[in-house]
Amino acid sequence: MTITMTSNDRPRATQKLRELLARPDAIVVAPGVYDGISARIALDMGFDTLYMTGAGTSMSRLGWADLGLATQHDMVEQAEMLANIDPTTPVIADADTGYGGPVSIARTVAKYARAGVAALHIEDQVQEKRCGHLLGKEIVSREVFYSRIQAAVNARADLGLDILIIARTDARQSLGFDEACTRLSRAAEIGADIVFLEAMTSREEMADFVRRMGATPCLLNMVSKGVTPVISVDEAADLGFKVIIFPITGFGGAIQGIRDSFAVLKKSGCEPKALVGVEEAFELCGLIQCIELDRKAGGKALAGLR
Ligand SMILES: C[C@](O)(C(=O)O)[C@H](CC(=O)O)C(=O)O
Questions:
Q1: PANTHER family, alphabetically (predicted)?
Q2: Cα(91)–Cα(186) distance, rounded to whole angstroms?
Q3: Can you list the positions of beta strands (E) in the chain?
């Protein structure tokens, strides 16, 4: 795989996501990434789309749970880094509530698009939001939600951007499934490209949701130990979903892996034997590419490395 640090091919990620979505009977699979290492692993393994998880971003950048603590600035910085390791691979990014009223949302859309993000999702929780799989979520009115989506759609048109807009509703928990579907149908009419019904509680709901949304592509959020029943990528595709995200797979695995590794150190006073070594880690993160880049430019800084 070619990884480039140039920005010339940025528009291709959005175009590529549109092409991936247009494939009949196929689903876009996006593993959750939350830092440079997790993004590098997903790219190295050949995933063709990445999902920037807000929960993972909040925990990796701030060390705090997904409770609306990450700011627009935190999220844009993270998105910019993730979208530019390989600018040809689409990144679908969490944009929470859009971080304010219509003016802030317009700025969020512009900043995400200019950072190289291919699609972003904006939801209808109040600003003091929380992970969609926790209890006690508070939801804004239909009007406020619709104006968030309208602001995003207008910003995209006014600024000549082609980022995809995903409307997410968290209304299922407190207002019910019908209200959630009504909100997303209207969001699609306003101009959202993809719809995301957070925290569905049964397979019947999943099937019904896709049916009710008609031609609008639907996204499924597969959160381990969340409130949505676990289904596979193939099952989601069979139900008609066009995108499936796995926000927890990366950081859930990392937490377990780091814990296991530290436990060996604490117990034995030595590192675990099976650890990935420093060179392998650097190679994962572009060492060879950097040596090549330096050599081609006549640089001497990395000449002695290999
Ligand atoms: C998708 C999500 O917005 C995320 O931040 O990745 C979260 C995931 C989580 O916290 O479990 C959500 O579902 O709200």
A1: PHOSPHOENOLPYRUVATE CARBOXYLASE, PHOSPHOENOLPYRUVATE CARBOXYLASE FAMILY PROTEIN
A2: 25
A3: 28-33, 50-52, 91-94, 119-123, 164-169, 194-197, 218-221, 243-246
CA-to-CA dists, residue 229 to 63, 180, 199, 290, angstroms: 28, 18, 9, 44
pLDDT of res. 11: 55
Among the listed ranges 33-37, 62-66, 164-168, 298-302, which one has the minimum average pLDDT value?
298-302
Q: All domains of the chain, ordered by start, with CATH?
A: 11-256 (3.20.20.60), 276-306 (no CATH)
249-254 mean pLDDT: 98
Q: What is the mean pLDDT of residues 94-103?
A: 97
Distance (Å) from CA 130 to ligand 1 centroid: 8
Euclidean distance between CA atoms 94 and 74, whole angstroms: 12
Question: What are 149-186's pLDDT values in tens digits?
Answer: 999 999 999 999 999 999 999 999 999 999 999 999 99
Residue 272 is classified by DSSP as: -
Q: How far is the CA of 182 from the centre of ligand 1 (A)?
A: 22
Q: Which ligand 1 atom sits closest to the C-alpha of 130?
A: 14
